[in-house]
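pasting for the record
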Amino acid sequence: MLSDFLFRLRAIFRPSLHERELGEEFGFHLEMETRKLRAEGLSEEAAIREARRRFGNLTYEQERTRDAWGIRMIRDALSDARLALRQFARRPGFTLLAVATLALGVGATVALFSVVRGLLLRPLPYAHEEQLQEFYAPYDWTGVEYDFVRERIKAFESLATYSTDGVTLTTEAGSTLLLSNVVSANLFDVLGVRPMLGRTFKEGEDRPGAEPVVVLGWGTWKQEFGGDPNILGKRIVLAGVTNTVIGVMPRGFYFPSPDVRIWQPLSLDPASNSYNHNG
């Protein structure tokens, strides 16, 4: 491999020497074939003519040899690069425009790849993601609809529900608007995800009489609470209501999108108007 590399390096930076050696090699083989034909009884002129006929087009064969060595492609690339640099040096305004266009194109490509990778290529942060299915409709569901379907559905092992809304976090430092996911108590069990600290919601915490609790995202725990290792059991104020922090999700987890910062349990109260009607 080292010998091949040095050979190609010499062919690129000392092309005249390489071409002379290539010509000498072809000349040697042509001379050997001519001598062989003369030994078979052909005249000098006839032997040279027959040897050239057997070798074919020497220029074409030399080009094929260069292609086989991988030299021609490198030379062409270097030649194109030198030509481009000369053109850019003559027209600096065009050069600036070309570089800016290239930078925008590369940036857009990288951004698009990041989106595609995040949505299509990178695995979702859930256990057995291939077994999950999301359903949605352009209208609000009701608590009674969720309970009705959950009790009777047979095609799936389990069913959870969620809704997304904004909520204000109030601390001594001030107020911050966070995107909250209001979910049924079994959501994290359906996703098959365990928290980094504490626990997620228990059965019944999305029903009447349950104490208000909240699960924090890793980013919220870090940014809003400084990564406090003693955050569990502390009370925080969300939309004017005191909630107890019961868990912190691991870094990299999100649901349904990375913008969601916290999770709160639904209030599925059959006695409430919202349980039986949209809105």
